[in-house]
């Protein structure tokens, strides 16, 4: 009979293997339970629009070593949650982490939904050309294997960023029919919105308005608040270009309402600043100032928010007679971010606002340098009309001629009323440059009438300064400073007054430190002292006190 005894070492080894296997399975079950609990908590927070809380749960879930399929799913949810917080730009790191993990395992990212979120991260960082390049890479990677829906989405995204860059002909080449995508899909909303923008860029107001209305209804059907604010925002931007300011105002109000209702944190200051920009155009500086004050109570570290805040602050400072105070506080980093974006909609307004501030402070050479650099980066008039008009005053002859040609191309399209008014303002500045005061007054009066006809009251006042210099004095008397800090001179030191003024201009602690050549820690100390001396607890209360 055979000896079936097993050696003790082999028996012990087998038991150890079984023990380890049981422990591994036990650990897997523990991780799965924890993952399910954290993901469910994140989903619940998300359903209540508590995006920051949701992000905390998802991030904790990702701290464990998860199977790739679970990691991808949670990562996508985390990125979406962070994107809705006050710092959407911080989502980029998690997108890159997910893509890097696939690459490290030698796996394709073709089916990775999270990669489609990266182009908008570049846009948030004011790096729009990188968005275009990345979409091209994704399209090449997918090749012919891409579904019809994916191809349509990529084409729509390409067209969207090309439109932002003012490259309308290229954007039109990426247009695809709405029938190429499902009726109830994000791609359908993006396509409808994009087609409306192309129609507006070509002066087709009727087609644009119908298209935007269609995109709004499609977004509402999806119950996607962020997507709806995108459509309302674009609707407002292009209604302004087409001279339909009341339509633009309605769109601004609705976009801001949705962002607040659904707690899309960064969209609240973004859309408040957008609304303030429109109100400046309409000459309502008081409400614009209140919106700016509200916006800067939020985080504005994200580059596009910083560009907007710097632009609105400069525009209001000039409009309300604070140009001298503002000149030392211009956010040069925001200006550089605008140039890095290559978008006329960012470059034009901030360059024009800075040039006006600098001119009033006798820094004409710097004003000319900014205008020269800006006009060379712009190839379309939309959203940059004021800059193009100012080029007749500050640019070289070649730059002025180029700006005039860009304006005239837009004038010759249908519904070119806004461009026509700025074209006449260009003519008035050109006459002034050639020391023809009589012609400048005559043309300035004509430009002012053009602006009044389309409701651009701020620009009407600017044009009348050329037509009737005496009006400039009246306008200056009617202005009020953004912050009446003089009342607090006994309570605050000279340096604290400087810091408080910069806070009211929308500057972050980092920007204040740079402007005053002090450390961020010193800025924080001054802020603490200001709050203590005035009996305040936050920047918001400081803004409220100024009101």
Protein described:
This protein has 547 residues and is mainly α. Helices cover 74% and strands 0% of the residues. It contains 29 helices and no strands. The protein has helices at residues 8-47, 51-61, 68-83, 92-104, 118-124, 128-142, 148-164, 168-173, 186-201, 205-222, 225-241, 245-261, 267-281, 285-295, 303-319, 323-326, 332-341, 344-360, 364-376, 385-394, 397-411, 417-433, 437-454, 457-467, 469-478, 494-504, 509-516, 520-534, 539-546. Helix 5 (118-124) runs antiparallel to helix 6 (128-142) and helix 15 crosses helix 17. The longest helix is centred in the first third of the chain and has 40 residues, at 8-47.
The chain-level mean pLDDT equals 86
Terminal residue distance:
103 Å
Helix content: over 70%
**Uncertain stretches:** 470-484
Count of DSSP helices?
29
The amount of beta strand, in percent, is under 5%
According to DSSP, the number of beta strands is 0
Succession of helices and strands: HHHHHHHHHHHHHHHHHHHHHHHHHHHHH
Outline type? globular
**Main sheet attributes: strand count, strand direction, barrel closure:** none
Give me the secondary-structure category: mainly alpha
What radius of gyration results from the CA coordinates?
28 Å
Which features does this protein show?
single chain, 547 residues, mainly alpha, 29 helices, globular
